[in-house]
Each structure stands twice: as C-alpha cells, then as structure tokens.
Amino acid sequence: MTASxxxxxxxxxxxxALDAARLYTSLVPGGELGSISHYGPENExxxxxxxxxxxxxxGTQQFVALNGGPHFTHSPAASxxxxxxxxxxxxxxxxxxxxxxxEESMCGWxxxxxxxxxxxxxxxxxxLASDPDPERASRAIAAMLQMRKLDIAALEAAADGAADGAGx
Length: 168
Description:
By secondary structure, this protein is of the alpha/beta class. It has helices at about 15-25, 85-100, 125-130, 135-145, 150-160; strands at about 10-15, 30-40, 50-60, 60-65, 80-85, 105, 110, 115-120.
C-alpha cells in the first residue's frame, strides 16, 4: 500500500461549528480555518445557507466541525490534548477555552463552552513523569492529580520533594 488516506477527526455540534472552529484556531498555535460548506435548499437538518461543516487545523491535526443538530453530544471519553512549552501558554490556552462558560476539571482537563473536552498539558509534565528516579516521577504525578489547571512550578517543586507541591 503506497497511497495515503487523509485522516481527520469529526466533531459534532448542534449549530456552533463555525464559532467553535474560530475559537480553537485562535488559541492553538498553527490553527487555521479551512473550507466551509453550507446546507443546500433541500435538507431537513439545517436552514438553507447555514453552515454544514468547517474544516480546520490545530497544529498538524486536521479536524472537521459538523453542524449535525441536537442528536449527539460530546463526551469526556474523547478529548483534545494540547502540549504547551511553558506556563504562559498553558494559562493562555486554558483561560481562552474556559472563557464564556467552560468548566475546569481535574488533572489539566476542562470542558469548553461547546461541551468539548480538552487536556492542556505542559511538556514539562511528560519529562517529570518519565524521570529516571521513580520516586521523583511519582511525586510529580501525585501533585498533578490534585490540580485543575496544571502549574509547572508546583509540579517541579513536588518532584523535588516539597511537601505541598508549591515549594512550601
């Protein structure tokens, strides 16, 4: 097999596909809107001319946001992971996704205002979790399990043995 088949993740929305795609592409580096298709005159799923689907890219990942109506909702069983190089990026993306009605969850997870689950992860967490010293790695993971938005300084402090993960 030599042919390449494009693979995209389809995200189902009631009517908010374009708004969601605009938000996501504005927050995630490398985000870009692609083609937008509209419902035609003879359909039962959307008003003529309304947005049917939006293609977009986040980093190197391709997505399609589909306005399919109220038949399905998002589930936390599937989430989008964004790896961030520093705390400023964690904060910026987290705050942007929470704005307007999103909800924080534990361990770096959140649900945005459209109901989609995200994990906003500092790349430093992966380094700490795979530390050659298993006790150091375990302390970092234990600290992560107590956090909502992940805090790199607190994760590092916990890995280093600080009692509360914040260096105190």
